[in-house]
Design a protein that fits this description.
The protein is α+β, with helices and mostly antiparallel strands. It has a five-stranded mixed β-sheet with strand order 5-11-10-7-8, with no helix packed on it. Strands 1, 2, 6 and 9 form a four-stranded antiparallel β-sheet that branches. It has a two-stranded antiparallel ribbon with strand order 3-4. Among the domains are: 4-80; 131-254, Immunoglobulin-like (Sandwich). It has helices spanning 4-37, 42-80, 131-134; strands spanning 148-149, 153-155, 157-158, 164-165, 170-172, 178-185, 192-199, 202-210, 216-223, 233-241, 244-254.
Length: 338
């Protein structure tokens, strides 16, 4: 037979050991998940995150086992092992022995440990590609369904290696340009890829074109509208390879955007100046050149035909006028002599 005190102390010790294991596993699992999400390589990140979730799941099982051992272990043990009876005085001959009831065990209330973090899985609908964007596909290459993309990191600027500078999840206006950076592996070249930007569930921008970045490396999607269009709210970017959803990322913008600057518009005053009416001069049509006519051959024919006609062509006009120019004057005078 077992001693009641030994059973009780053993159960208490088991409870404290199990509670300590659960308390140790919870922060270890949370740390593994947090460190895994910062790894740049997909396989290592996935393995570490899964290891963290296993630790949390095992911690929940241990916590549940702790509660069961605390409340149910002793009664179960006593069903298989009868506790030793309490010692009583030996009855004398003058006394009639009476049956002494075995005392029942009163359970000592204990503090139930509550896990620091509880994980309740929620159902998240899988994003889908809008048909209006799918209709714009111009690639005929079938994408590889096993292609993988890393979580998206958001930043205002990139360095020369496409690495985000000071990535954050919350930004404040004013904002000019935003980049969503990711790593990828196994992407088929020339297959269609699409990045869709949402603000509070409303489509605000998208880009879709054949992939030209090789099968692995670093890439980004960016949007740089007028700063007045960066309204405050929750933004989400979804990446698709073909029609297959790959990854999404979220960031928040706070503060009002700057007021758009009005653009100067030139105003012209209409004047009543008559404009000359353009007269269209008809272009002369091209006259076709006459075709050459074959020269008829000469045939000797004896035909009397008057071919000459006399026409008076000369008119006599007096051109000379005779004018006396010499005047005879007597110069010799004959005088008679005596």
């Amino acid at each position: 037979m077992l001693n009641n005190i030994e059973v009780h102390n053993t159960v208490r010790l088991a409870v404290w050991i199990l509670a300590g294991v659960a308390i140790i596993l919870i922060p270890l699992g949370i740390s593994a998940i947090s460190n895994g999400q910062r790894l740049p390589y997909y396989k290592k990140r996935r393995d570490m995150v899964l290891s963290g979730w296993r630790m949390l799941f095992f911690a929940i099982l241990v916590a549940g086992g702790t509660v069961w051992v605390n409340f149910r272990a002793e009664p179960v043990i006593y069903t298989y092992f009868v506790p030793s009876p309490t010692k009583v005085l030996t009855p004398t001959a003058s006394l009639t022995p009476t049956i002494t009831e075995t005392p029942t065990i009163t359970l000592t209330p204990t503090i139930t440990l509550t896990p620091l973090f509880s994980y309740t899985p929620t159902i998240t609908p899988t994003p889908f590609l809008p048909p209006v964007i799918e209709a714009r596909f111009d690639s005929v290459v079938t994408p590889d369904p096993s292609a993988v993309f890393s979580p998206i990191k958001f930043a205002r600027n990139l360095d020369l290696n496409y690495t985000p500078i000071n990535p954050q999840s919350t930004f404040k206006n004013p904002i000019k340009h935003m980049y969503g950076v990711f790593s990828y592996d196994g992407v088929t070249d020339r297959s269609q890829w699409t990045a869709i930007w949402y603000r509070d569930g409303e489509l605000v921008f998208f880009e879709s074109k054949p992939w030209d970045g090789g099968s692995g490396g670093y890439g980004y999607t960016d949007w740089g509208p007028d700063p007045s269009l960066w309204l405050p709210g929750d933004y989400e970017v979804q990446i698709f390879n073909g029609i297959f959803f790959k990854v999404s990322g979220r960031f928040t913008i706070q503060g009002d955007p700057p007021t758009p600057v009005p653009t100067a518009t030139a105003t012209f005053t209409a004047t009543n100046t008559p404009l000359p009416t353009a007269t269209r001069t008809p272009v002369p049509t091209r006259t076709p050149r006459p075709t050459s006519t074959p020269v008829p051959t000469k045939t000797a024919t004896l035909t009397k035909t008057a071919t000459q006609t006399r026409t008076a062509t000369l008119t006599r006009t007096p051109t000379l006028t005779r004018t006396p120019t010499v005047t005879k004057t007597p110069t010799v005078t004959v005088t008679p002599t005596k």
